[in-house]
């Protein structure tokens, strides 16, 4: 709707319009799969803490419909080489 706002003794007529916030970061990973581990290379450099990158990788591969995931035992991430190893509890 429309609103009138008083800013420093000046009146401004404003209107409110909805907008969509872009959430998350999209990136591409290169993956090599074995029975219990997935080797991930070319992890993009992100301006977030390393433990957040590990959490994002774990969540991505925990989802069974994405990347053939399952319950994750460990995520080993090396920022310098931009690689990670995701280890699952069970082979599959």
TrEMBL record:
A cellular component annotation (GO) from this entry: cytoplasm
Source superkingdom: Eukaryota
Domain NID residues, every copy: 2-73
InterPro entries for this protein: Nmi/IFP35_dom (IPR009909), Nucleotide-bd_a/b_plait_sf (IPR012677)
Listed PANTHER family: INTERFERON-INDUCED PROTEIN 35/NMI N-MYC/STAT INTERACTING PROTEIN, N-MYC-INTERACTOR
Protein known as: NMI protein
Organism: Dromas ardeola
